[in-house]
Design a protein that fits this description.
The chain has one domain (3-87). The protein is 89% helix and 0% strand. The protein is built from three helices and no strands. α1 (3-42) packs antiparallel against α2. The radius of gyration is 19 Å and the shape is elongated.
């Protein structure tokens, strides 16, 4: 395995991690922004108003994106296992 192969493996791992976590983080950020605007306009500073909707939204997004995430992870793992013979030569 050359240093270039190691860098490529690392880049692919970081790319797939960002790709899989992106939709969930984006949903959490959007819901958090909406709640922050709501709290700023109504001056309600309840802590549970911040956490509970974000948790629910991220769980719903996880249910919605789970099949896509599993397909991507399965494809990445399959490609990684198929490239093992090329890496150990």
């Amino acid at each position: 395995m050359t240093p270039q192969d190691a860098v490529t493996l690392g880049q692919n791992a970081i790319t797939i991690a960002l790709l899989l976590s992106g939709p969930l983080l984006l949903v959490g950020m959007v819901v958090g922004l909406i709640i922050a605007i709501f709290q700023a306009t109504t001056q309600i500073q309840e802590m549970t108003l911040t956490f509970v909707p974000k948790i629910v939204a991220v769980m719903l997004a996880l249910l919605f994106f789970a099949s896509w995430m599993l397909i991507k992870l399965n494809d990445y793992t399959t490609d990684l296992f198929m490239s093992i013979p090329n890496l150990i030569r």
